[in-house]
Amino acid sequence: MSASPVIASAPDRSGRAWGHATASAFAGGLLLGVLTNLFQGWLPGTWNQIANSGAVWSVAAFVAGALPARQVGLPAAAVAGLFAESGLVVGYYAYAEVARDGMGSLFAPLVWLGMAFIAGPLFGVAGFGWRGNSPRRRVIGLAALAGVFGTEAIHYAWVLHYVSEAWACLAVLVLVPLLMGRTHRERALTLLTAIPFSLLAYLVFYKLILTTLLG
């Protein structure tokens, strides 16, 4: 991804632009869903958890919202994020059904599809904000992306005790602002914002939502 400023232009809200953005996002999500399933089998030991982690999947929605930011408006970016996340879930479980031993109960796919309807638009909007010209929106959008890796780091370290994977996610939390921020101030603010985002997302997602759904 490029961190260069976006030249302001009027977004194209035509059906053709929306269709292209959403179709591309869904196709990319399908492909990545299959790949994450494959990488679970290819990566050694506990590293296979990284392949289909919520943080890695959120990147797809972020990219889906960021890439068409010059051509479409905010609503289309949110929908593109939704289609990317939904495609990931469909691709992942479709491959499990066809090429592996089956997806098993429909409960897990439905849970993750429900999550996609929440995380997809959120990270699509985050990607859109990062590509815009508002400093505040760029910081918040980028902090959301960095923060989701911080959330994974907490989960790996405190719950699963996967130390190497926790450090890897923590490194991503730091690298995202450093590499994708446009100014030193923006990088610092993004990092400072990402830390509380990480803690809040961990409490809401792991302690509230998943505990309620999965017990």
Describe the structure.
This protein has helices at residues 15-42, 48-51, 54-66, 74-99, 107-131, 135-160, 163-180, 184-214. The chain has 215 residues and is an all-alpha fold. It has two domains: 13-132, no CATH class; 135-215. The relative contact order is 0.13. The model is unreliable at 1-10 (pLDDT under 50).
What is the topological layout?
Layout: H1 15-42, H2 48-51, H3 54-66, H4 74-99, H5 107-131, H6 135-160, H7 163-180, H8 184-214
Summarize the structure.
By secondary structure, the chain is mainly alpha-helical. The protein contains 8 helices and no strands.
How many domain regions? 2
Ends distance: 38 Å
Low-confidence runs: 1-10
Computed structural class: mainly alpha
Overall shape? globular
Strand content: under 5%
Helix content: over 70%
SSE ordering: HHHHHHHH
Largest sheet: none
Number of helices: 8
Number of strands: 0
Characteristics:
215 residues, 8 helices, 2 domains, mainly alpha, disordered N terminus
